[in-house]
Amino acid sequence: MRTWFSDQVRERLGTFGLMMPSIAQCAVGAAVAWIVAIELLGHPRPFFAPISVLICVGVGLGQRLRRVAELVVGVSLGVGVGDLLVSWIGSGPWQIALVVALAMCAAVLLNSGALFVAQAGSSAVLVATLVPGEGSGGLDRMADALTGGVVGIAAVALLPASPFTIAAKHLSGVLDALSTVLERAADAIERRDVDLAAEALEEARGTQGAVEEYERALETSKEIALLSPLHWHRRARLARYETAAVPVDLAMRNARVLIRRTLAALGEASPPPKELAESLREVSEAALLLQLELGAGREPLLARQALLAVAASERPRRLGFSAHVIIAQLRSIVVDLLEATGMDHESATATLTSLDTPAA
C-alpha cells in the first residue's frame, strides 16, 4: 500500500511538472489577452479574449494551431447566428434553444469537429444570454476571439514547455511498457507459467493508450518546436522521436501478438524452449537502451548494435507451431526497433538470419 501511494505521488508530481508550462501559458496569456482587448481594441468586457487563450493553449496535448482555427471560426459562427436571431426574436428559454440548435447545425454542416461545434453552440449561448444590452457587437466579439487566439500562440512560442521533455516522457512510457511485456513473456516461458503469460497479455492489451498519448505528445512537441524561436535550432533532435513513432507503435502491436501466442504455446505438448526467453530479454534490454539514448539526445547506436546481435542469432530447432510464431513476431519487433533507431525497412530486414539456417 505504501509503495503504491509513493508511486502515485511520484506520478502526479511528474505530471504536474510536465503541465506547469501550459498552466503558466494559460494564466499569463489570459491576462495579456484581456489587457490587449481593453487597451488596444477599446472593448469594455472582452470575455472572449481570455476564454480563447484557455481553449487554444489548454493544459493537455493536442494540435493547438488547428484548435485556434476551429476556435476563431466556431466563435464567429456562433456569434453571427446568435446576433442575427436575437436581434429578430429577442432572448428567452425557447430563443436560446433555437439559437443553439441552429448554430450547432450550421457548424456540423461546415465541420463536424467536436471543438468547432461546441464553440459555435457555446458562443451562441453567450450572445443570447450574457451579451445583449452590453453595447458590443458581433464584430467586436469576433475580434476578441481572434486576439485571444493570437495571444495564445504567442504564449506557446515565448513561454514554451520543452518539446523534448514532452516527447521523451511519453516515448519512455511506451518503451518501458514494451520492455516489461517482453520480460514478462520471457519469465512465463522460463517458468512454464500460464498464469504469468495471461497477466502479461492483459497488461499488453492496455498499452495502446500509451502509444496514442505519445502520438499526441509528439504533435505538441513538433508544434512547440515550430512556433518557439528558443527551439528552432534543436529540431534535429526532435526528428529522432518522430522517426521512432510509427516503428515503436508497430513493435508494441507485434508484442501483443507475441504474448497471445506465448500463452497458447505454453498449453501445447511441446512448449517453447527456454532458450527463447534469453532472446526476448535481449530485445527488452535493447528497448530500454533506445529509451536512454534518445533521452540523452544521442543517436541510438548501442540499441542498434544490441538489436543487430539478436537479428543475427539463429533460432532453436524442434519448435512447435506457436513457438515458430513467437520467433516470427520477435523478428518483426527487432525490425521495428531497428527502424526506430533510424535504419530503413529494407536494411533492417536484411539483418535477419534466414529462417532456413540450421541452429548450431
From TrEMBL:
The keyword Cytoplasm does not apply. It is found in: Membrane. The chain crosses the membrane at residues 12-37, 43-61, 68-90, 96-118. It comes from the Bacteria. Signal peptide: none annotated. Residues 34-154 form the Integral membrane bound transporter domain. One of its GO terms (cellular component) is membrane. Keywords: Membrane, Transmembrane, Transmembrane helix. The keyword Transmembrane helix applies. InterPro entries: Memb_transporter_dom. It is a multi-pass membrane protein. Pfam families: FUSC_2. This is Uncharacterized membrane protein YgaE, UPF0421/DUF939 family. It comes from Nonomuraea pusilla. The lineage of its organism: Bacteria, Bacillati, Actinomycetota, Actinomycetes, Streptosporangiales.
